[in-house]
Amino acid sequence: MSEPTVRLVRAGAVAEIILARPERGNALNAALMDELARAFAEVDAASEIRAVLLRGDGPSFCTGLDLTAAPKDFAPILQGRGAAGRQELLTLIRRLQAQVGAPATCAKPVVAAIHGWCLGGGLDLAAAADLRLCSADARFSLREAKVAMVADLGSLQRLPRIIGDAATRELALTAKDIDPQRALALGLVSQVLPDREALLEAARAEAEAIAAHSPLVTQGVKRVLNAQDGMSVQRALEQVALWNAAFLQSDDLTEAFTAFTQRREPVYRGR
User: Fold this and answer.
1) Contact indicator for 63, 117 with CB cutoff of 8 Å
2) In whole angstroms, what is the distance from residue 235 CA to residue 262 CA?
C-alpha cells in the first residue's frame, strides 16, 4: 500500500486537510488530487464539521503540478492528438478543475495556511479557499507561462475577484514571484505571520472562530458570496433576501437571542 498523499484530521468542529507529499513539495499528482477531492467530499458530508483548515506538510504549501508525474498521470497533456485526444484532454482538465476547486465547492468555509512555495496549481488551490493566511517565508507565483501553459485550474477565474484584474494579468503574464508583503497589499492574504508555528496557530484560530458560529450562517455567507458573482447589486440583494427568507427563522437564531439576554455564549446546533 502506498502512503497517503492527503491526511484528514478532525479536531472537534474543525477538520484539517493536509497535503502530505513533503518530499515533492506537495506537488500535485493524480493520487494527491484524487485524495484531496475525497477528503473535501468527506468533510462536506459530515454535519459535525463546520470549518476546514487546508495546509501542507514539509517546507512548502504546494509547488504546483508535478511535472515529473505528467507522462504517467497526465498523459493527454503531452500525448493527445486528433479529435479523440483533444476530447480526452478536455475531460482531464475538467476533472482537475473540479478537484483543485474543491475548497470553493465545499459548503464549509475553508481557511488556507500557506508557507514556503505556493506555485501554479498551488495558487489555484489557495485561491479556491475562503480565507488565506501566510508565513513570512511564503512565495507566490502563477508559473504556468514558464511551462508554455495558460493557467486553467481556477486562478484566472478566481484571482480577479480577490486581487483585481490588473494584478492577475501581471502575475499570469510575467510568472513572477511575489512575497508576503505584496500578497498582503493585493489582498491575496489577510494576515502575514512571522513563522510557520504562528501561521498554524492563527489559521486554527480563524477556523475555530468560524466553527463557533451557526453553520446555517457561515455556510449561507459562503453560498451567497459565491452565487452573486457577476450579478448586479440589486439581483444580489434579492438573492440574499431569498436566502434569509428560507433560513433566517432558525433554532440557532432563537438561541442567539436567548444567549444574549442570558449573558452567555450561544450553543449552535445548525437547526
Assistant:
1) yes
2) 38
Cα of 203 vs its chain's centroid, Å: 13
d(CA 50, CA 8): 14
Class of domain 6-211: alpha beta
Phi and psi angles of residue 80, each rounded to the nearest 5 degrees, phi first: -60, 130
Query: Each residue of 81-94: pLDDT tens digit?
Result: 667 777 777 888 89
What does pTM read for this prediction? 0.88
**pLDDT tens figures, 131-151:** 999 999 999 999 988 888 888
Nearest CA to 119 out of 100, 142, 93 is that of 142
Q: Which of 103, 106, 112, 107 shows the shortest CA–CA distance to 216? A: 107
∠ Cα 11 206 169 (to 5°):
120
Q: By the 8 A CB rule, do 152 and 127 touch?
A: no
CA 22 to chain centre: 19
User: Could you give the dihedral angle defined by the CA atoms of residues 143, 179, 132 and 36, in that order, rounded to the nearest 10 degrees?
Assistant: 40
Cβ atoms of 92 and 73 closer than 8 Å: no
Res 64 pLDDT > 80 = yes
Cross-sheet strand order for the sheet of 6-11:
6-11, 14-19, 51-56, 110-114, 131-135, 191-193
Q: How far apart are CA 224 and CA 207, in angstroms?
A: 19
Phi, psi of 235 (to 5 degrees): -65, -40
